């Protein structure tokens, strides 16, 4: 259970859509918004984990989150999922584009098809999810979009060039959307997590030495957990951040 250290009253009953909301950071975000009393819909392809999350929260929050199975690399499925969220909870006024796939890959072996498929997961859905929900936000005269980027693109990491290019692109997209949608009262910001200890990270890439090196570079000497991303996201989604837009909030324990 995620402990709520702050309550944002304007998020109660808000229609929230989260991509990649079934596991890792996304599951923490889904739970965090649900515990604010938001009406949360989340998109994922991880069916088992997503259903377990819904079952765990059912009866423990005011509005049980709605799981929508969809492949975000298929724009037709993405648009249909956004429409289902609108239909279930009213026009989405908070969009959190969290879904990503940070597989490691070698530049000298990277194919055109790999590049395109990687961008179709890590960058393109953020643009087209925003496009899908923007009309409802414009009609409402307000809204918040939070895009998840990563500190990885700032660190000259050489083992995932397509991913880091996409995460840099998220920042450019965020600023462009902020400029386009700001006149309608819609704020667009990004969060750049550090190395968050999700189950996937721990299974695939976390080593004792690697974690010790990262903690040595952080000002705050604790591993970053998925729930550490919830507070920053709730803040940016709420009216407490009403004059904050086109910004990147780095949440990395002070490593940068």
UniProtKB/TrEMBL annotation:
Alphabetical list of SUPFAM superfamilies matching this protein: NAD(P)-binding Rossmann-fold domains (SSF51735)
**What does the UniProt keyword field contain?**
Oxidoreductase
Q: CDD domains given for it?
A: SDR_c
What Gene Ontology terms describe what this protein does at the molecular function level?
oxidoreductase activity, acting on the CH-OH group of donors, NAD or NADP as acceptor
UniProt-recorded name of the protein: NAD(P)-dependent dehydrogenase (Short-subunit alcohol dehydrogenase family)
**Stated family:** Belongs to the short-chain dehydrogenases/reductases (SDR) family.
* Tree of life domain: Bacteria
């Amino acid at each position: 259970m995620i402990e709520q250290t702050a309550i944002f009253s304007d998020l109660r009953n808000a229609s929230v859509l989260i991509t990649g909301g079934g596991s890792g950071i996304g599951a923490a975000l889904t739970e965090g918004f649900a515990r604010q009393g938001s009406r949360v819909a989340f998109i994922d392809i991880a069916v088992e984990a997503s259903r377990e999350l819904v079952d765990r929260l059912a009866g423990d929050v005011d509005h049980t989150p709605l799981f929508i199975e969809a492949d975000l690399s298929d724009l037709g499925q993405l648009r249909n999922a956004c429409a289902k969220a609108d239909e279930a909870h009213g026009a989405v006024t908070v969009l959190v584009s969290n879904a990503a796939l940070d597989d490691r890959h070698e530049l000298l072996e990277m194919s055109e098809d790999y590049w395109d498929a990687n961008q179709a997961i890590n960058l393109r859905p953020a643009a087209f999810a925003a496009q899908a929900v923007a009309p409802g936000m414009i009609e409402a005269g307000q809204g918040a979009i939070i895009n998840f980027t990563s500190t990885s693109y700032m660190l000259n990491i050489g083992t995932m060039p397509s991913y880091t290019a996409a995460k840099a692109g998220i920042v450019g997209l965020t600023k462009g959307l902020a400029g386009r949608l700001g006149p309608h009262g819609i704020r667009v910001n990004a969060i750049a997590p550090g190395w968050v200890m999700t189950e996937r990270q721990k299974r695939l890439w976390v080593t004792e030495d690697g974690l010790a090196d990262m903690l040595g570079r952080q000002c705050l000497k604790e591993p970053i957990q998925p729930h550490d991303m919830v507070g920053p996201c709730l803040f940016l989604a709420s009216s407490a951040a009403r004059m904050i837009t086109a910004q990147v909030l780095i949440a990395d324990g002070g490593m940068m």
